[in-house]
Specification:
Structural class: mainly alpha
Number of domains: 2
Number of helices: 9
CATH superfamily of the largest domain: RNA polymerase sigma factor, region 2, helix turn helix motif
Distance between the termini: 65 Å
Helix content: over 70%
Strand content: under 5%
CATH class of the largest domain: Mainly Alpha
């Protein structure tokens, strides 16, 4: 690399040829969450970055940490470009997905407990509108009250539930 930085093109070609296999291995290891076809793209970006940034290597420090830092940054960039999407084949885990429902989550148990502390009509209204996602009009019709009365009752029920939750803390 020292000779390459002094303008020796043949030395730079030899250098890149020698560092490509270990960089490829590093990219495969660090980029396990990336699709395998992206590994070669990342390698090309690393090689280009080495070419463009080779003047930043001081010539005294070991070259390997500098190379690995460049590769590591390019792998991170590839993950960022890709976003948070992870694609895994579902066939390998399909039988594990069909699990029986477990115990009720704590939040649901707390909600049931709090709803048991208010009157039945208000609790039914809160369940229908806030938990199940029905419209206030549909819930009002099911409970046999006007939509306006349902909105007022829902507001009062939510206020009462909030007070009860504060007391339970």
């Amino acid at each position: 690399m020292t000779r390459a930085n002094q303008g020796d093109g043949q030395a730079f070609h030899c250098f890149l040829t020698e560092v490509t296999p270990p960089l490829r291995s590093l990219i495969r290891a660090r980029g396990r969450g990336l699709p395998p076809d992206l590994h070669e793209d990342v390698l090309q970006e690393v090689l280009l970055a080495i070419h463009l940034k080779r003047g930043s290597w001081d010539g005294v420090s070991p070259i390997r940490p500098w190379l690995y830092a460049v590769a590591r940054h390019k792998v991170v960039d590839a993950f960022r470009k890709r976003g948070r999407q992870i694609h895994l084949p579902i066939d390998d885990v399909a039988e594990m997905l069909e699990a029986e429902p477990g115990p009720m989550p704590l939040a649901a148990r707390d909600a049931d407990r709090l709803l048991g502390m208010i009157d039945d009509r208000s609790a039914a209204l809160v369940r229908a509108v806030r938990i199940e996602g029905q419209s206030t009009e549909d819930a009002a019709e099911e409970l046999g009250v006007s939509p306006g009365a349902a909105r007022v009752a829902l507001h009062r029920a939510m206020k009462r539930l909030s007070e009860l939750a504060q007391r339970m803390k």
